[in-house]
Structures are given as structure tokens and as C-alpha cells.
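B., you asked whether I could sanity-check this one before it goes into the benchmark set. Here's the sequence:
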Amino acid sequence: MPVLKWRWIVVAVVVVTVITAGLLWLFLAWTGHPDAPVRIDAVKTAFGVGAGAGGVFALWLATRRQRTIELQLIETTRIAGVTERDLEERRVTELYTKAVEQLGSDKAPVRLGGLYAMERLGQDNPKQRQTIVNVLCAYLRMPFKGPEEGLRGSGAVGANRATEEEDAVSYDPAELQVRLAAQELLKTHLGHDNPAFWPDMSIDLQHATLIDFRLSGCTIVVADFSRARFVGAVHIRGTTFARKAGFYGTDFTGLANFDQSVFEEGAFFSRAHFRGVARFARVRSAGGMRFHHTRFDAEAVFERGKHADPLDFSEVEGNPTGLPISDNIEAEPGH
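And here's what the prediction gave me:
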């Protein structure tokens, strides 16, 4: 609403005055009785009409002034809100940039600090969570020569003791700790029963080297582990994949446990290599589960699974035991 200028207020006052004077003249001119009482009544009537017109104008002016004040307050609030959002976005950008710079440090403690700074940023800013997950995945996709065996379990402990000197020079233990922390952060925020759960997240870990990977009890929209290398046991048990999961050409060096997981659009494990036991017990899928040209070096467990489509084991390589036959695969109703 435009601001009312003073000259228009003066014009309005003049108009009211002219109207009052005109009415007074008319009343006096039209009155056929020159006696004083009649003239007094005419004057009262004229001034009454003028006062009424002035009151209406004053009321309109007060209303307009109040509306102007309200609009100014609304505009001030809007500008303050925009300024606050700009400041918040700038703060988030600065924190994000600093965390990324820390991840690029050549010192492992600084990189760890960058990981946890980024996690705090995502915890406080839900809109940034997918970006932060993407950064964590990108870090894990970076080339890394890790240990040849997992670090958990009695067998792994014995192997590590036997090859301690060799491992000390074959990979960077400090960098390994940073990567294990990144893996743990993913598990924490993708776990659907965790208070810190971040819903609707997708992960891209193609070509990543993952050590003793744990992702059990999680819910993920899109997950791609194609050509990743899992060193040590892998536990992705009771996890829900909302879209088709990708494990094309993935190398599993130890136990691969997918028990009770749900693949809502299926998954492809084509050309994957299971060097240890592969467990898919009580797995459910609503799409195709493809194991085309997949190699099983040990037992494969597929008991009590429920699948909308038959599992595809065409041209399976190796000599696995426990591959499913028609009796131990339960098809979903209607298929």
C-alpha cells in the first residue's frame, strides 16, 4: 500500500471545509425565515454534516495508517526471516566446507574430526543428510590398499598376529581407522531402529574397499555395491532395500550374511564372487534375484526364502553346496 502524502491530506481538509461552507450557504439561502433560530439550525446542520464528513475521513485515515503499519511490520518480519535463512545457509556452507577440507588432510585425526563434524551437520540439518551420506560414500570409494583379511573374529585375530609385520607395511592403519569410522556412521544413520536414523537415504559404494562391513537392520532406498570388495565378514542382515540393489561383480572374501533381508525390487549379484559362506536364509524379494555367472566357493544357504520370481542361477560357477532347489523356495501368492 503506497504511503499517503501530506498534500492529499491537505486537499481532503480543504474539500471538507468547502463542503461545509457550501452547505451552510445553501441552508441559509434556502431558508425563507430570516429569524435567528432558523439560521442557527441551518448553521448547526451544515457544521454537523461537515463534522460527519471530517469524521469519516479521519476514520479512513486512521484505518489506512494502521494498515500501513501492519504492512511495514509484515515486510520487516519477512526481511528478518530471509536474513536469518541466509545467515543459516551461510553457516551451513562454511561448516560443510571446513569439514570437507578436514577430510582432505594428510593427518588421520583431522580426517576423523572432519567425519564427525559432517555427521553433526547432518544431524542438525536434515536437508543436508543425503549430501553428507554421498560424501561418506565418496570417501570410502577412494582407492585404499587394506588388509587382506578381516579384523574381527578369532580366525582373523590369529591371522593378524601371524602377519602383523607384513600388514604394518601393506596398508595404513590410521587410514583404516578413519574408514571404519565412516562405515560405522553409515550403519548408525541408516539403521531404522536407531534414534539417529536418517530416512530415505541412498548409498553408492561402487568399487569401494570395505573392511568387516556391517549394515544390518537398515533401510535404504538405492544401494549400489557393484565391483566393491568386502574384506572379512559382511553382515547385511534384516536390511530393507526399497529399490533394486546392485552387487554386480562384487567380491566377498569372507562370510556374506544377508539373512532376513528384504529386496523390494530384487537385486542382481551377477558375476559376484562369494569366497566364503553365502547366507540368504528367509530373504524376501518382490523382484528378480539374479545370480548369473556368480561364483560360489563354499556353501550357499537360501532356505525358507519368499520370492515373487524364481531365483536366477544361470551359469553359476564353482561347486557350491546348499544352492536352492524348487522345494525350498516359496513363491509369493499369485506367482
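One thing to flag: The two ends are 67 Å apart (CA to CA). Otherwise nothing jumped out at me.
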